[in-house]
Give the backbone structure.
Amino acid sequence: MTEPTVSLEALRQRIDALDNDILRLISERAACAQQVAEIKAEHEPGAIFYRPEREAQVLRRIMELNQGPLDSEEMARLFREIMSACLALEQPVKVAYLGPEGTFTQQAALKHFGESAISLPMAAIDEVFREVEAGAVNYGVVPVENSTEGVINHTLDSFMDSSLRICGEVVLRIHHHLLVAETTRRDKVSRIYSHPQSFAQCRKWLDAHFPQAERVPVSSNAEAARLVKTEWHSAAIAGDMAAKLYGLARLAEKIEDRPDNSTRFLIIGNQDVPISGEDKTSLVVAMRNQPGALHDLLEPFHRHQIDMTRLETRPSRTGVWNYVFFIDFKGHREEPRVAAMLAEVQLRAAEVKVLGSYPVGVL
């Protein structure tokens, strides 16, 4: 047996030395963050400490520079936590999300802001909007669309009466697990709790494996996980956070019918976000009820070569059979060609409301 070229002890010593370097550099970064906070507090009354465009630029740069062996997303997640901890030294970020604890929305909030953010659960989407509008929190996180089930209309409707802006987005891969408690008799499961959307996303799997079990819809997957703790013959469909929060075991993993199942969440706040270099804009447009209205709306996008990524229609609250359009497209409202396109749309529409320009989700 040949001798290894580098001994195990030498490798461990090298790792210890690298850990010392990493510790020193993170501490230096944190000290710089504290200095930034002091300068802002002295020269910018009411300064904004969290800058979505700056954070997106840093994470993109890290992913571009990364040469492995960790993949780029994993490296970016590590830097996200470092940035989150450093930001907490400047000013802790308070974030409201659609609760309760253990939901995918909380997972999205922590993915975007990091574990050092203060996350507060709200009972409904409109409560998230109210908390941000009142200044009780800095930002809110709400779901807006699922790749399987489509848009969340309650979120779209909330924007129609709100002055809040979209400051960012998070796309979360959704994995559902069938969870049971320690006291569950696994061969006797006769009742399954979950949110109605999760039942819809796992319908084929349930039909194949638990066709006789009663499916009981509840307000959230976290609530489903909580209920399972008190019953011996039930299971819950929920994600990793709910499983960890309530101490449940996985009876089956990744039971969603579509492996690409994902949900998009929006970050809402009171600030306009500057250009980051890779941005998206969302707006709501009310058109006059006349022939060719939709063509008039879409034509400037085509002529200015603006890439529209989403178009949704909702009934208007101001008139019978009138509709408003929710539109997402690539680009920032401050870019010249986007500004020119928006000016034309405003001339053709009854009303245009820009919901925000914000960085495309990095993670």
In short: The CA atoms of residues 84 and 114 lie 5 Å apart.
